[in-house]
Design brief:
It is a single chain. By secondary structure, the protein is mainly alpha-helical. It is about 70% helix and about 0% strand. It contains 16 helices and 2 strands. It has a two-stranded parallel sheet. Helix 1 packs antiparallel against helix 2, helix 6 packs parallel to helix 8 and helix 13 packs across helix 16. The termini are far apart.
Length: about 400
Amino acid sequence: MQYELSRIENIILKLLDDNDKPETNVLQPLIAQMKQERTQAEQKLLSVLFCNYSEAMRRRYIRYHQMHLLDITGRLHQYMLMHKRRLTANATWPLYNEALCQIHSLLKIVEVHFAEDMRMDVPAAYSTQQEIINELRAAIPFIDDGLELLKPDIHLCRLITNSFEFLLNADSESLTYGQLYMMRDIGKMIIHEAGRTKHRKYPLDITKQLIENLCRLNFNRLVFYKFCRNWVIQKMPAGKDAIYSYSRAGKFFERLKPVAGYAWNHEREPVSTMLRDNLHDLVKFKKREWKEQFFLNGNGNGRDTRKIVTTLTISQLGLIIRLFIETGIFRIKSMRELTQFMARNVVTVGKNPGDEFSDEHLKNSISKSAPDVIDKVEQILNDMLSALRKIKLANRKSIRSHNTPS
């Protein structure tokens, strides 16, 4: 895989040579040559789509050309700004502008066809920045109308609105591809969700929906992270149920995989990762808090006496619950409520009394059982039958002795 921009770079170097002070008649052949070279480079870049290269090789090739195109664009754009008066005076500005457009068209090929291979953490080309910023400015009224229709949490609504204002007023030269693409997709997402709301038959927790989408787009502003953390804490119940709820919330954020390269801050962890880690820490803190309470209440061994301690695994417990359901001993209205109750109030083998197991794991164990689990539960039932026979014999002896005349 070869570097395709060497000839174009040589042409740009001639355009940037102040010693020659090129006139129109000298520049026109250079621009014509650049158009020809740009066409060939474009064809070679697009041919990569149809070549059997490894993903790593393709990514390295695209990023190499992306960074060189950005460098050439930056040098040419800076030169034009510095010498705008002279280039305008000798009527060569349009030719330089044409050269800049040729480089931008190559960058556009990379941005459109190879977005997954690009470096997203570098400042975008000036033309790309202006294009997306103008697109966002035109979309702001529709985004505001969308938020007004959706009516999410007022703090989240204000946070999103302020982020667009901050981005559009920021130094455009510092905006990365990841920032610009992320904010553009956030705007599209809000407008799309607002359109769906008009036709939705059932109510939706729109704040939760927006949080989920913003995490997937890796809107990792610290103010958004703090909002999500406080929102989860406010939604969660107090007391012992908080441990289970924080654990479930942590798994919820863990499942939200961010779009590769998207970020408000590329040096920061994805917001879903930050929230997952924070909630896992809260679970550990709550467990330690409960264990300390057990000791303070005189439970020297740290056991929660309100829980039923068993020698069953979760899989064995699930099969036994299934037997109780199928034989009519348990009459349940909601399987979810039953599994959550068991997770809160039953201790399985290998678990500390302060810990809870996954109710989803228990639910799966109720519906499916491995052969070794079935064999173990069968042995338990046989032991119970043996114990029942002993109780029956003891009961008969007790009745005989009671009926025997003294």
